[in-house]
């Protein structure tokens, strides 16, 4: 029997108040995930929490082993993943405290392993075939709907849709970069949403991002630019609220076997060359 059916990749603030959390360590053919998985029950569902940056937040966004993280979640039975993350707002109306559930993503990262299907043999000798992922709509529609309904239910008027641009970091954008991102019509900027969404799709997992705006990005504000201190302060103020929305969204996700979104059928007709966990 699976240990969990739903995964949440986010900070320790999301699971640290749960009763009866079981910590398990999971290894993967891609190395170790960011930390242990923390298994607990939310809204009658079995959930695996994974601190994206490791406990104590020691991993910067470009050092996170995204492949190991998603693989580890799938290996304990997870088939639907919610990925809350902190972002900067690229429009004045998306100020601190805005919750935006994106429907598009732009990859501006540089160094991250972003596919399982790169032809490199796994430790067991199996060789992933080259596989070109359909990614026109990067997020699971059912998971997005659950997240938006959960926010509404908590009187948080979440923004439905928008484009998350993911930068390499760990530095924030310059004003010119930020104005360019805004000029493209993109909505929010973060550092972790990619390749998380793409890898989830490759594993046939449902995935949705819940982005919490912690600051206006450098091109959209008139002060001294973004500081890490501001980000932490706004995130800290909203983490309790975001936890409530996440937990309600967990309860609103369909049962694993009753999904109609198509995320699990992404490999149909393809010879993968490897066995997914
Ligand atoms: Zn789905």
TrEMBL record:
Q: Per UniProt, where does substrate bind?
A: 191, 215-217
In Gene Ontology terms, what is one molecular function of this protein?
S-methyl-5-thioadenosine phosphorylase activity
SUPFAM superfamilies reported in the protein's UniProt record: Purine and uridine phosphorylases
A single GO cellular-component term on record = cytosol
Work out whether the entry's keyword set contains Transferase: yes
Q: In which pathway does it act?
A: Purine metabolism; purine nucleoside salvage
Q: What is this protein called?
A: Purine nucleoside phosphorylase
Q: What organism does this protein naturally occur in? A: Streptomyces benahoarensis
